[in-house]
């Protein structure tokens, strides 16, 4: 009869510790493990807070860029559709327009409205005029509605004539960052008087 002795380690005597079925970790080991876990969780919480802050900052910048670009594109659209002539796209408007409402793009920082007002043009002085219950502009029930203001945003439009056929349009949007500081984003575009010739 042969006995397989390969798995036995000769010369080793089992200690009392090896034979104790209720042996476990000490309190010191538990305290160290809890400390490591706490440090890890605090690091994770800090990284989540940082990620949220960066995400908010990115969203603010993206929304501000879209506002600047839409304002610059509006100038080109106004010219192309002849809603305003090239000469009328200015900080001082031409009151001789057919609708009689457009008074130019005011200088200085203005609140941003979600509504273009009676003249149908964003960035002008009448953006906060509400047509009232009758939904008709120019009647006695019109009122100024500041609930249309986009919270925290202000816009400035500066139009400079460089020549009889070229204007420089600078749009600055002031917005708050997540830290509460005000930041300015500036977009510049050039508008010429002969856009139609590009398509002929």
Mean pLDDT: 82
Beta-strand content estimate: 15-25%
Helix content estimate: 25-40%
Number of strands: 6
Give the structural class.
alpha+beta
Poorly predicted parts: none
What strand order characterises the main sheet? 1-4-5-6
Q: State the domain count.
A: 1
Give the overall shape.
Answer: elongated
Distance between the termini: 107 Å
Count the DSSP helices: 2
Largest sheet report? 4 strands, antiparallel
Q: Over the alpha carbons, how many angstroms does the gyration radius reach?
A: 35 Å
Order of helices and strands: HHEEEEEE
Structure description:
The protein is an alpha+beta fold and 200 residues long. It has one domain. It has 2 helices and 6 strands, in the order H-H-E-E-E-E-E-E. The chain has helices at 16-19, 27-80, and strands spanning 110-113, 129-130, 143-144, 149-163, 166-176, 182-192. The strands form 2 sheets. A 4-stranded antiparallel sheet has the order 1-4-5-6, covered by helices on one side. Strands 2-3 form a two-stranded antiparallel sheet. The N and C termini lie far apart (107 Å).
């Amino acid at each position: 009869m042969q006995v397989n002795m390969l798995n036995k380690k000769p010369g080793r005597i089992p200690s009392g510790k090896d034979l104790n079925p209720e042996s476990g970790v000490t309190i010191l080991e538990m305290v160290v493990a809890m400390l490591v876990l706490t440090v890890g969780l605090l690091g994770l919480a800090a990284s989540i807070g940082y990620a949220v802050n960066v995400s908010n900052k990115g969203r603010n910048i993206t929304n501000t860029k879209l506002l600047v670009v839409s304002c610059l594109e509006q100038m080109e659209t106004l010219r192309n559709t002849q809603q305003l002539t090239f000469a009328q796209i200015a900080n001082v408007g031409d009151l001789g327009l057919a609708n009689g409402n457009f008074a130019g793009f005011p200088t200085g920082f203005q609140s941003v409205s979600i509504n273009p007002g009676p003249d149908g043009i964003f960035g002008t002085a009448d953006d906060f005029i509400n047509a009232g219950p009758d939904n008709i502009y120019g009647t006695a029930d019109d009122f100024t509605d500041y609930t249309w203001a986009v919270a925290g945003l202000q816009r400035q439009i500066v139009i400079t004539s460089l020549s009889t056929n070229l204007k420089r349009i600078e749009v600055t949007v002031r917005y708050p960052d997540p830290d509460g500081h005000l930041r300015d984003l500036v977009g510049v575009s050039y508008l010429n008087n002969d856009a139609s010739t590009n398509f002929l």
